[in-house]
Amino acid sequence: MSNERSTxxxxxxxxxxxxxxxxxxxxxxxxxxxxxSLDAKVKQVQEEAKYAGNYQKPNPYSNTYNPGWRNNPNLKxxxxxxxxxxxTQQPRKPSPLEESLNQFIKMS
Length: 108
Fold this sequence. Notes:
Elements: H1 2-53, H2 96-107
């Protein structure tokens, strides 16, 4: 009897090993499927990034900016603002009536 008991125990252990191996195989299959799907997603993201990298955003000032204006002194933002002050207002010439009144005031 004791011999039969040990045989049953060996059969039970053998069954547990097979079940454990099957579970391990199932886990490895699942990991493999996840890796393959993850690789496909990574490849898709890389392709999307390459496509987006070739995209050139349109310049909002392309219709209004003239490259020739770059050399215009009136349109520059620089530290030397003396060029912008060249257009000072000249003193106005007095009218003939003002001149005659000024002469009259000086004489009196």
